[in-house]
């Protein structure tokens, strides 16, 4: 269960433009491993964004450019905040209608009769 304060903080952050959302985050850079050659292995192109109000942390390492990774991380942060801000529709308990209950029981009776007739044939 997600606390209401956390959900409200996520909704508020989603309404912000990219610059303001990035200002609310702690941004760290790190060396991203993987294909890309010497440029990727020697420079800090990986981006980690930690959104302070909600505690959501996302990373982006797939590009060789720090600026492109920053944009990808911001998109991921928005997607994660949308998931956090989503409030599921409350479920209401329902009962089967009288007609559906009667149909179900009559079908069960018909099936039982058919099975019992099978054993008489043997």
Quick synopsis:
The protein has 122 residues and is an alpha+beta fold. The chain has five helices and three strands, in the order ααβαββαα. It has a domain at 4-85: 2-Layer Sandwich (Double Stranded RNA Binding Domain).
Describe this structure in words.
The protein has 122 residues and is of the alpha+beta class. It has a domain at 4-85: Double Stranded RNA Binding Domain. It has five helices and three strands; from the N terminus they run ααβαββαα. It has helices at 4-14, 18-23, 37-42, 66-85, 98-121, and strands at 25-30, 46-51, 57-60. It has a three-stranded antiparallel sheet with strand order 1-2-3. Strand 2 and strand 3 form a beta hairpin. Helix 1 (4-14) packs across helix 4. The longest helix is centred in the C-terminal third of the chain and has 24 residues, at 98-121. The radius of gyration is 28 Å and the shape is elongated.
